[in-house]
Design a protein that fits this description.
With 317 residues, the chain is mainly beta. It is 7% helix and 53% strand. The strands form two sheets. It has a 14-stranded antiparallel barrel with strand order 1-2-3-4-5-6-7-10-12-13-14-15-16-17. Strands 8-9 form a two-stranded antiparallel sheet.
């Protein structure tokens, strides 16, 4: 059993590193842009409160990664100019041994360019990294004796906080959007007695388009999302259809990782979504897939309409 626990920890740590180094991979990335790019805060012109929960690799038990992402953002006007502000929180339980938590503030400044809006965003906050060394169980030999201690493995709970900074740009019209961001700009260093590591700088790129159909109530929304640390990369290619401006469905292909089923609905001020990842790698031998739930509440703000407020990203249609 000890060997199984160590194997699961190793697999979890290694695969998450290959996938995204530090940043979480959300299948509904188009509904969680605020996690990847701070430039989108205030984009819809309303007060948006969003929560997304991901349960990864069902079947791994306590070692299965679990992630909660929550954010609230809204526009505001200052000195006759539009701005966007937001709060973001991410709790990423990578395994029963290790977890990361981030809380931060976001700001975006929009500027009209041609038929669209260019937004520039900044995010700052604290990363809280926890390693529960007292829960690690090392394998034993045939006589039941534990092996020699490893200085790289902590023996007690270690809790470290570091400052983190991210920035992004985002351009949108009524038909398309394109954005780019860099996270962990300062490459935070952690140098504690029981934990020595650093967080790599990462980059992400996103683009999407609205394709009108003969029925004005139905639309096609293809999109692509890329994450990389310039050594490894992750690519999602997505095709979604919107029906009656209330229901959505589609598929994503995460290259060398998974095929994703996407479902969604909007009822009044509530928008909900679900994603199921079917792994296409060897991980499927030990997992039945991953589940992801999304929920957003939108409150319309009573504010004067401006030119900037006339444009919306296709993500919010």
């Amino acid at each position: 059993m000890n060997r199984i626990v160590i194997m699961l920890i190793t697999i979890t740590g290694c695969v998450r590193t290959v996938q995204a180094q530090y940043d979480v991979q959300f299948s509904q990335y188009f509904n969680a842009m605020g996690y990847y790019n701070p430039a989108v805060v205030g984009l819809s012109g309303n007060l948006d409160v969003t929560a997304l929960y991901r349960l990864q690799w069902l079947g791994f038990g306590l070692s299965a990664p679990k992630t909660l992402f929550a954010t609230a953002n809204m526009p505001f006007k200052y000195l006759n100019k539009e701005h966007g502000v937001g709060f973001v929180m991410v709790k990423d339980d990578i395994s029963s041994i290790r977890s990361n938590m981030f809380t931060g503030l976001q700001y975006a400044f929009p500027k009209k360019i041609g038929k669209g809006i260019l937004r520039i965003g900044l995010q700052g906050g604290l990363i809280n990294m926890t390693v529960r060394g007292d829960k690690i169980r090392l394998p034993v030999d045939s006589l039941g004796n534990p092996g020699p201690p490893d200085e790289a493995i902590p023996v007690s709970t270690t809790d470290v906080k570091v400052f983190d900074l991210s920035a992004g740009i985002y351009f949108s019209t009524d038909k398309l959007y394109i954005g780019a961001a860099s996270t962990h700009l300062l490459k935070p260093q952690i140098d504690e007695e029981n934990l020595k590591t650093f967080i790599e700088r990462e980059y992400n790129f996103m683009a999407g388009y609205n394709i009108k159909t003969n029925n004005p109530l139905h639309e096609l929304q293809p999109s692509v999302f890329v994450k990389t640390n310039l050594t490894m990369y992750q690519v999602d290619v997505t095709a979604r259809a919107i029906f009656a401006k209330k229901f959505s469905g589609g598929f994503s292909w995460r290259i060398n990782d998974a095929v994703v089923l996407l479902l969604g609905a909007t009822i009044g001020k509530i928008q909900a979504g679900y994603a199921y990842d079917f792994p296409t790698t060897a991980i499927r031998k030990g997992s039945m897939g991953s589940h992801e739930l999304f929920l957003k509440y939108r409150m319309q703000l009573n504010k004067p309409k401006t030119i900037l407020g006339k444009y919306k990203s296709v993500r919010f249609l």
